[in-house]
Amino acid sequence: xxxxxxxxxxxxxxxxxxxxxxxxxxxxxxxxxxxxxxxxxxxxxxxxxxxxxxxxxxxxxxxxxxxxxxxxxxxxxxxxxxxxxxxxxxxxxxxxxxxxxxxxxxxxxxxxxxxxxxxxxxxxxxxxxxxxxxxxxxxxxxxxxxxxxxxxxxxxxxxxxxxxxxxxxxxxxxxxxxxxxxxxxxxxxxxxxxxxxxxxxxxxxxxxxxxxxxxxxxxxxxxxxxxxxxxxxxxxxxxxxxxxxxxxxxxxxxxxxxxxxxxxxxxxxxxxxxxxxxxxxxxxxxxxxxxxxxxxxxx
Length: 299
Fold this sequence. Notes:
Blueprint (H helix, E strand, L loop, with lengths): L3 E7 L3 E8 L4 E8 L4 H14 L6 E5 L1 E4 L4 E4 L8 E3 H9 L3 E5 H12 L8 E6 L3 E7 L2 E2 L27 H4 L2 H11 L7 H9 L3 H25 L3 E5 L6 H17 L1 H6 L4 E4 L6 H15 L1
Parallel strand pairs: 1-4, 4-8, 9-12, 12-13
Antiparallel strand pairs: 1-2, 2-3, 5-6, 6-7, 9-10, 10-11
């Protein structure tokens, strides 16, 4: 019988889970609203474990600082109520199954490395644009974790060194896709704002929307330039909900080239990488967590 795995993607709004085979084919999937207390959160995970009982192992993608070897998670964002928690031990004690726990942006990167647009790439990265900015970095064909399991925390990069209060000057604060969409919706006075309506305004070059969108893409391009100056990558993929909009990739490339044209040092010292949309959308973390499990087993 073919081996099957339970993969869980924990998000701030919902917990997605899927039964996946060894080749990465999703057999069945479902989701449930993310609880807002520790007790209910753990009870919900236990219920998910029991819903898909005939699996070989369990893998989890989670927002936060994750030590994938020990399974210790320092939860962040809306899940801060969990604090620091040994999620790997909880899975093992509850199910007696092998496990893998990984950071959500790293899992998105692993999915691309396994079956997506980073397959065969030795040095690359995935940038996820959402409420904040996540990242995963691949060096010499392997995901970079860093000494403290914090490599790829791009949201913590400070963008304005002259500001004594850096809270609102980090990449996470200034390059939020959610904030950009909301700002354009407000400026354009959209009655029921959503990403689709906002990008209709952008694609038709509504001057109010386009100006804000250009500024946003410039900030993304600056982030990519900074990464290139340090890492000299072959490919950078852009993920997150807005990455399905072709105009985003086109304009980020345009802004990257404009920055180089304005400063000869950037033209001489930084090579624009291949900039593409990530292949996987909502299923990226589910697939990447499974690949993380395979790599852990191989090691």
